[in-house]
């Protein structure tokens, strides 16, 4: 393939690691950005252990909060896959705290892509930019024409940052004339790359780990739309080269599971290795009382009793994806976590 160099931002992240593996397996030259090159050897080691040819991988230091490194990283690239985004382990006190890095970083990447003459950008957005802070509605089904309500006091800091970053990307794409595709996955689970400490789990894995470690014997009445990281990686590659994907927001999810259902899958996937699995659902009134003091409970309140789903027709019809089941994603992540515990 001519000019087969791809810039992949945020290479040390959970999603980006799987995207890098698929790119390298497909024969692309990959330029990955990390905040500091101290992570370079660990990233290379993980990808090599997963079977990638890391001779086609080069790493650049570039941070979303600064201009340094982006022009050099994008030079000579045909495509840009922008996965880097702040994702905190717990909700920030100030819900606008993540916005500057998310928005300004996205604009830095798009500006560098424009200078480099990039053909297309694939933005890793989120379902959080589609279905957050909407009042309940019949069916609770959402798609690419839906946008989260950024004015709502109920929107989380993460959903706010992803929504504003994606809107900024579409505005910049229109201004620069660059082709843009947004990938909007639900909560991303699935197998972890590697079993060593170098393989960062990412914030999404914290949910499954908490379930396995017995920290959630009782749970709120919450359900999550889920996407398998392997499907998310496949979607990025397909969106990069499929002509009809340009200008689309493509939601990814294979189904929705409650916390009780997630616990059941974990127990079946890791019999004997998971501790007290969730078996009881907390009354909503208890969660609302806890929300007075707990930011995590406060964030859960608007989602109590809701079971949102995503219209993934574009993923199937445009990208040709056939998604793995949500149970498969949960089981694969639980088994990866269990393997890490055994080898620690």
Automatic annotation (TrEMBL):
Cross-referenced InterPro entries: Epimerase_deHydtase (IPR001509), NAD(P)-bd_dom_sf (IPR036291), NAD(P)_dehydrat-like (IPR050425)
Ranges where the NAD-dependent epimerase/dehydratase domain occurs: 6-246
Pfam families per record: Epimerase
Keyword annotations: Oxidoreductase
Top-level taxon of origin: Bacteria
Molecular function (Gene Ontology), one example: oxidoreductase activity, acting on the CH-OH group of donors, NAD or NADP as acceptor
UniProt family annotation: Belongs to the NAD(P)-dependent epimerase/dehydratase family. Dihydroflavonol-4-reductase subfamily.
Protein name per UniProt: NAD-dependent epimerase/dehydratase domain-containing protein
Organism field: Aurantimonas manganoxydans (strain ATCC BAA-1229 / DSM 21871 / SI85-9A1)
């Amino acid at each position: 393939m001519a000019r087969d160099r791809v810039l992949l931002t945020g290479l040390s992240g959970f999603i980006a690691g799987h995207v890098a593996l698929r790119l390298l397996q497909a024969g692309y030259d990959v330029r990955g950005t990390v905040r500091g090159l101290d992570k370079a050897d660990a990233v290379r080691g993980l990808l090599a252990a997963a079977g990638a040819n890391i001779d086609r991988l080069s790493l650049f230091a570039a941070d979303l909060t600064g201009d340094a490194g982006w022009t050099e990283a994008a030079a000579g690239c045909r495509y840009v896959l922008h996965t880097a985004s702040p994702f905190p382990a717990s909700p920030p006190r100030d819900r606008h705290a993540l916005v500057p890095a998310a928005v300004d970083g996205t604009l830095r990447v798009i500006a560098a892509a424009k200078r480099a003459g990039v053909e297309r950008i694939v933005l890793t957005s989120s379902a959080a930019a589609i279905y957050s802070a909407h009042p309940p509605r019949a069916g609770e089904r959402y798609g690419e024409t839906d946008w989260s309500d950024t004015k709502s006091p109920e929107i989380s800091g993460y959903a706010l940052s992803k929504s504003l970053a994606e809107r900024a990307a579409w505005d910049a794409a229109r201004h620069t004339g660059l082709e843009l595709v947004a990938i909007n996955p639900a909560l991303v689970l699935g197998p972890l790359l590697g079993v060593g400490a170098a393989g960062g789990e990412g914030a999404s894995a914290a949910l499954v780990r908490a379930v396995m470690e017995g920290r959630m014997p009782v749970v709120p009445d919450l359900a999550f739309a889920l996407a398998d990281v392997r499907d998310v990686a496949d979607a990025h590659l397909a969106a990069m080269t499929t002509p009809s994907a340009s200008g689309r927001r493509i939601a990814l999810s294979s189904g929705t599971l409650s916390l009780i259902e997630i616990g059941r899958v974990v127990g079946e996937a890791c019999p004997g290795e998971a501790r007290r699995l969730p078996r009881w659902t907390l009354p909503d009134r208890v969660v609302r009382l806890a929300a007075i003091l707990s930011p995590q409970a406060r964030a859960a309140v608007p989602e109590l009793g809701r079971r949102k789903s995503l219209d993934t027709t574009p993923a199937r019809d445009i990208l040709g994806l056939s998604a793995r089941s949500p149970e498969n994603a949960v089981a694969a992540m639980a088994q990866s976590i269990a393997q890490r515990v055994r080898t620690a």
